[in-house]
Write a structure and sequence with these properties.
This protein has nine helices and twelve strands. Helix 1 runs parallel beside helix 2, helix 2 crosses helix 3 and helix 5 crosses helix 6. It folds into two domains: 184 residues, Ribosomal Protein S5, domain 2 (2-Layer Sandwich), CATH 3.30.230; 136 residues, Alpha-Beta Plaits. A six-stranded mixed beta sheet has the order 4-3-5-2-1-12. Strand 6 and strand 7 form a beta hairpin. Helix content is 41%, strand content 23%. The protein is of the alpha+beta class and 338 residues long. Bound molecules: (3R)-3-hydroxy-3-methyl-5-(phosphonooxy)pentanoic acid. (3R)-3-hydroxy-3-methyl-5-(phosphonooxy)pentanoic acid (PMV) binds next to helix 4 and helix 5.
Length: 338
């Protein structure tokens, strides 16, 4: 039996624009998905994913997605979870050269689902790591990231960028531009997350931006401008001392770029009333800056504030269901129990 964990992430800059070849800077946060894999003799896959929904569910299938169980959670949620886990298992079988391997898989996660914090990437990354290790094969984190991207790419019909999976596998701050992925040095940024309790439809939101971009030159320019501000943010991080706490000037400069980034995402139609309200609650609490994170439409915002004020203000905001501080996770995928 092997348990591996992998972190979720926030986007400091660059979601959506990354789909069109602009750079993005996601940062891993200390909210993890833990996946336990225990090989089974009969070649079947049994999944126990109590934390993936409010009700919890357990499914068993023989590697065939049509072999659907009758359980009391939304079909789309079960389908999504099964597809991600199925794709992770397929990658592990391939990596360990064990095409008939079966598993008991247990998933626990403290990352809200579909809310822009990279929950599915963390489950896939931890799942591939745990299942390959359970078969006696160890992959380095780059290889886990590559395989997790393949898995997500397949499930999301080619819509996924490498950002979530690379960030979750490697940890820390990363930079993604097309197929070019690298880790970057960053100080421990004081992230505060506000969660509206909802979720956005990534595929639909990505398609919406694509259509706007095709329709209007100024929408294409907006996407490029997000790339420009991301590059400016990268320069700020490159000049900072990764070992010291970030000073107020750095936070203000990064925050200004985050505010700008949120405005451009809003212009591209991917924000939501609840996200805007949480962004404003953070700004009024004197956060250095705030923006939505991930695909948008609902889910989470991220703000920078070393003081308790933003978390407290979000806690009082009607649109915010949960507010929490999120440390930068310097470690990506890791073994919890072998
Ligand atoms: O909401 P998330 O965490 O799935 O992030 C989506 C980020 C996009 O840039 C909109 C799409 C992608 O795959 O990069």
């Amino acid at each position: 039996m092997t348990t591996s964990s992998a972190p979720g992430k926030v986007y400091l800059f660059g979601e959506h624009a990354v789909v069109y070849g602009e750079p993005a800077v996601p940062c891993a946060i200390e909210r993890r998905a833990r996946v336990t894999a225990e090989p089974r003799e009969d070649g079947r896959v049994r999944v126990d994913a109590a934390d993936l929904s409010l009700d919890g569910f357990t499914v068993t299938w023989g590697g065939d997605i049509d072999d659907r169980p009758d359980i009391d959670v939304p079909a789309s949620l079960v389908e999504a979870a099964m597809e991600y886990i199925d794709a992770a298992v397929a990658q592990a079988r391939d990596a360990a050269d064990a095409p008939d391997a079966g598993f008991d898989i247990t998933v626990e996660s403290d990352i809200p689902l579909g809310a822009g914090l990279g929950s599915s990437a963390a489950v896939v990354v931890a799942g591939i790591d745990a299942a390959t290790r359970a078969l006696g094969t160890e992959l380095d984190p780059e290889e886990v990231a590559r395989r997790a991207y393949e898995a997500e790419h397949e499930v999301q019909d080619g819509q996924a960028s490498r950002a979530d999976t690379f960030c979750s596998a490697m940890g820390g701050a990363v930079r993604v531009e097309g197929d070019d992925t690298r880790t970057i040095d960053a100080p421990a940024l004081p992230f505060v997350v506000g969660y509206d309790g909802g979720a956005g439809d990534t595929g639909k939101l990505v398609a919406g931006v694509r259509a706007l971009r095709e329709q209007h030159a100024f929408a294409a320019d907006t996407v490029e401008t997000i790339g420009d501000l991301t590059r400016e943010g990268e320069r700020l991080l490159a000049d900072a001392d990764p070992e010291s706490d970030p000073d107020a000037d750095l936070l203000d400069s990064l925050g200004e770029l985050m505010d700008f980034n949120h405005g451009l995402l809003e212009a591209l139609g991917v924000s939501a009333r609840s996200l805007d309200a949480m962004v404003w609650a953070a700004r009024e609490a004197d956060a250095a800056g705030a923006k939505l994170t991930g695909a948008g439409g609902g889910g989470c915002i991220v703000a920078l504030d070393p003081t308790p004020d933003t978390e407290r203000a979000l806690g009082f905001a009607a649109e915010c269901e949960q507010a929490f501080r999120a440390e930068l996770a310097t470690e990506g995928v890791r073994v919890e129990e072998a």
